Automatic annotation (TrEMBL):
It comes from Rhodococcus koreensis. Coiled coil: none annotated. GO terms for cellular component: protein-DNA complex. Keywords: Activator, DNA-binding, Transcription, Transcription regulation. This is DNA-binding transcriptional regulator, LysR family.
């Protein structure tokens, strides 16, 4: 019978690319991982790793065992989830992650609901961007993640993940109140094509989304001011220096000299509660329920 602990070590090396990275993911020392892999090689009687530069590379046998090992670990996790699901008591631990605006506006309400309904449930939270949260779900570092997918930049989800729609959000344009279009009921993106823009730094999801959204309309955006938060971007808008696209969920505070105007076409995103397919525990189901209720209280 193969050791599950040694299978986990091999799978971690296959996933993260090095013994050091695998050790960090498993929260053990690199020497501990090396010892487990050495024992594993002696146990199966074949070489699983070979040196490759400063790191290691899996042999054909190592890749085969890592692939089968991931399947075995997933099946065990699913079996554990199914057994736990037989008990309706929501107890244990629930690790939630979320992108920043939902983490600030909605998740605390959901966590408070969970703690009130299920006193024996220990809930933890960590913030991150959607592109960071998805791998954390895959690596089992989180049980539940709140992620977003813009219609103009759809999210690609892994096959072993299940998503539940919990909210629909949209973005409006922020203009200085003395801008000629600020008093309109709505503006077309084409009408503000030649304006300077403020958004997040290049490489951030919102920067990529703004560029892609405007390019889809044949607009090459003139991005002059990059700031890592919407509050700072709105200050540039308030001084008449730029326009900004701001999701409604992120609109916690708007300066007096800024007008928020709906745009056409509507810029919509879907917000999902994401979990692994093999993790359908009562704790996770309770988390999805609490998040759905909390988002319902936000409105569109």
């Amino acid at each position: 019978m193969l050791s599950l602990e040694r299978l986990r070590a091999l799978c971690a090396v296959a996933e993260h690319g090095s013994i050091g990275a695998a050790a960090r993911a498993l929260h053990v020392t690199p020497s501990g991982v090396s010892q487990q892999l050495g024992k594993f090689e002696r146990e199966v009687g074949v070489t699983l790793l070979v040196p490759a530069g400063r790191g290691v590379q899996l042999t054909d046998a190592g890749r085969l065992l890592a692939r089968r090992g991931q399947e075995a670990i997933s099946l065990l996790a699913q079996a554990e989830s199914e057994v736990v699901s037989l008990d309706r008591d929501v107890v244990g631990e629930l690790r939630i992650g979320s992108f920043s605006s939902a983490g600030r506006v909605v998740v605390p309400t959901a966590v408070a609901t969970l703690r009130s309904r299920h006193p024996q449930l220990a809930v933890s939270f960590s913030a991150g961007e959607t592109e960071e949260l998805i791998p954390a779900i895959v690596r089992r570092e989180l049980d539940l993640a709140v992620v977003d997918s813009w219609v103009t930049m759809p999210l690609h989800l892994p096959e072993d993940a299940v998503h539940t729609l919990v909210h629909r959000d949209s973005a409006d344009v922020a203009l200085s109140r003395d801008h000629p279009l600020a008093s309109r009921d709505h503006v077309d993106l084409d009408e503000i094509a030649d304006m300077p823009w403020t958004t997040w730094k290049k490489g951030a999801v919102f920067h990529t989304w703004l560029v892609q959204t405007l390019r889809n309309r044949g607009i090459e955006p003139d991005i002059r001011y990059e700031a890592p938060e919407f509050a700072a971007q709105l200050e540039f808008v308030a001084h008449g220096l730029a326009a900004a696209l701001v999701p409604r969920l992120a609109r916690v505070w708007v300066p007096d000299n800024v007008a928020i105007v709906p745009v056409r076409p509507t810029l919509e995103r879907e917000i999902y509660a994401l979990r692994r397919a093999d993790n359908d525990r009562p704790t996770v189901r309770a988390g999805i329920e609490a998040l759905t209720e909390a988002f319902a209280g936000v409105g569109a």
